[in-house]
Fold this protein.
Amino acid sequence: MTTQEIDLSTAADRTATAEKPRRSTFGRVRYYDHAVLLFGVFLMMAPLFVAFMTSTYQPEVIHRHGMQVGWGGNFQETYWTVLTKKGGFSEEVTGLLMTQNSLILGLGFAIGKIVVSMLAAYAIVYFRFPLATFCFWVIFSTLLLPLEVRILPSYEVVQSLGMLNTYTGLILPLIASATGTFFFRQFFKSVPDELVEAARIDGAGPVQFFWDILVPLSRTMMAAIFIIMFVVGWNQYLWPTLMTTEETLYTLVRGIRQVMQTYIGSNIPDYNEALAMAVLAMLPPALVIIIFQRMFIKGLVEQEK
Amino acid sequence: MKKSVFTNPTLPYLLLFPQMAIIAVFFLWPAAEAIWSSFFILDPFFGNATFVGFENYTDAVTRSDYQRTAIFTFWFTFFVAFLSLAIGLMLAVSADRVLRGKSAYKTLLMWVYAIAPPVAGLIGIMLFDQHIGPLVKFAAFFGWELQVGVSYFDTAFAMTTVATWKQIPYNFIFFLSGLQSIPSSVKEAAAIDCRSEMRRFWTITFPLLAPTSFFLLILNITYAFFETFGVIDLMVKGEPGNNPVTLVYKVFQDGFRGLDVGGSAAQSVILMICVLALTVVQFRLIERRVHYG
Amino acid sequence: MFRKTLLAAAGAAFVAGSASAQTEITWWHAMGGALGEAVNEIAKRFNESQSDYVITPVYKGNYEETLTATIAAFRAGEQPNIVQVFEAGAATLMGADGAVVPVEDLLKANDVPFDINDYISGVRYFYADDSGKMVGMPFNSSTPILYYNVEALEQAGVTPPKTWEEFAEVTAPALKEAGYVPAAQSHLPWIFTENFFSRHNLQFATENNGYGEGTPEILINNDAIKAHFTAVKDWVDAGLFGYYGAGWSDNQAPFENQEVAMWMGSSASFGGLKQSADFDFSATYLPYWEAVTSEPTNTFIGGAALWALTGHESDEEKATAEFFNFLSSPEMQFFWHQETGYVPITTAAYDLAKSEGWYEETPQAEIGIQQLSLPGGDWTKGYRLGFYVQIRDVMNREYGRIMAGEATVDEAFEVIERESNQLLERFAKTSG
């Protein structure tokens, strides 16, 4: 392990990073680290690369020869078909419509969750009222049961409210879990008490305090949680699968299941279209977290506290 | 509790109303209904109910496939959590140490976080396809004849691999920011005291990461339990057959595919109890952390 | 967004308003892809054939999803007029008293001529009640048949096997010698279980195969089928049979890739195979065991039926009846048969296909209907079992265990018998 050359070769780096003297002493391990990281990147990205490349081939080719790493040259055609091919008797269902539905679900879920949980967290942290403890425990109890364990009854409730195949029925039950409320509760608790005092002295009421001080203060937090929730909402699968039986409400992720039905069936499955849809379904959330990386990481890690 | 609080007779209730209303309608009501219907066998069309006491529970837990599903869920959860934590940590440690290309690595390693579980499942099932899957051909190169969909073990292996792959970025992000929040003075002191990279990690860095790890463990268990549904659903291709499935998939399978409302509800309630136990652990942990904080 | 929805709703209302003279009905179906296009074509032709009724077909996902969506809609009072429900869900639908208008009653009440003997024998009583009244209208009906790679068999110097004995002694070893996996199949519960029972005229369940009033018990733990599975497992171990899991296409793909020489699938797979197999293939009847019977009988159908749901106005019921009439016309049946490979359900349609020369062009397309028209027996009418989706899941699981060597044939069949009867008992309680 202790080869002289490696030490020597990293000497240049050592001077370049003189401000971190301790670390560079162990500069030679960086080769190992780069190897680990490159392998990690390969592990994480290769399947996506293969999926994308394969989606540019004709389905018959994929059927006979499996997944591909080359360029199939069918890119435009496949993606254009997925985005615009009209399905169903009504001929309304296209990939674009599914993208729109995914957006509505992602945005509706994120915004709804932020609004509802901020209000609730504000009430819990800043007000003294008789039912406070009770409300807190009720909200807490939602953390106990994820939607997955109560899907069937949730479905029945939504059905008896006549909300099947509506955006409301799609989004509201997902918001019921109060993770956001806890997040904001924690954040509000870290806001210095002096601010409330100062606001009071200035004669600001609770609504004003919330709107003029708390909301601007929470802006970064809101953005961070928005990014996370958008990704979570966009990626929902089980609930939309049950809830939406109208094709016009399908999200992209839900649509993949539909394409898979032909995978099970007896004709040649449209592998290329399924994979193209998978690529389309992963792009927006991936772009969001890459572009807002810093905020996203902050939000994600803050949840822990 | 805050020292300074507002008092207002109606405002807090107004603020809480949306949250409480949604919880009441979409959480408490369904939860109550699940418990209620777990004691009945129901006709799906008209909702006619025959009271059967605990029969749904005894039927569920005594069925050999339920036991098999429970055992699979346990091991699946164990391996997914363990492997994705270990790999996530390994990558994070390296990413924390390198100086060049750090943000490029970070970006590329994060990417998969954005992928929905069923998308991961779709890519996985094609990579592991018996006839055209490159990973099957790769395994055959080493003399392992992978038969995903035929052999219970091989299918379990494929599912675990895909579910782990999907979860690595999550753990990576947490560990990396955990490592970066360790003060550099601590790191430097450690470097002087302890020349061995390995020992330094296990004696100093790892204990500092322990709270993060424990918290992550809970999150990973929750992930493997619930969020892997999409992976499983795509990978069994609509025919569970002799393939392993998780308990959540079983609730879905019996309730929606098989229309056994009561039986499915009983399984839901059993899951609720499991989650309850898990949450007690989690809550204690949170309390402790808050206390330290 | 909401404004857009409103506009769309207003637009829909306008269209509906302008066409108020017509009676509108909806038809939920589970036919995706090319099959869905054929469904749309049928609906289009019906709408064009007359001006009183308009039918709208809506794709609701796979069979299970369609049934679940129907139940949800039924409980919300928004059920469609017609729904397509598959054979395994038939008992659920018929077990719910008053959810379905029997097609025979519906047609007679609306003065549509109906004679059950117009339907081919293998189809006639499958969706009928105990008294022989047709309840569901057979729609996409197929039956398992044996496809074979012509060149592979020639190369091995064999003909397609008539019996399993022939397969074991002659066909399979020769094909293996020629470098092929001799055979595979795509659906063990359907092809090697239900149709094993009907092909050999064996009783599948008590209570008249489940059609009777009482709670049926499954008679699957039977020496004949156990011997069959013992043989299949031996073949798999000896490389004489391919098992690629419970997935349909996993088992079909190696036949298409010419690794497997013979494949048992659905008569409706014909259309897909023509598209995906670039070699000469043909089809024949499902083999039988000479040791079990010397007079093999007809097979069951698989697929789905159309069911008229209750709770609709009489003019809508009239429209439904008219649509059924249109659908069972020889021309439409021939169209459907030609497009999809599903069998024509009436003798008139079968005759039309013959007179149009369809089978001279594609003799393989006739195998399914010929096999369905073989002489029947006491136990070849069909079966009706509740929670049958789960029962098939149990079978698939246990068969998988046999094939993977995790359970012996005896153990697996004992489990299937026990758990199926448990499910049947549970199902009996759903109807109170």
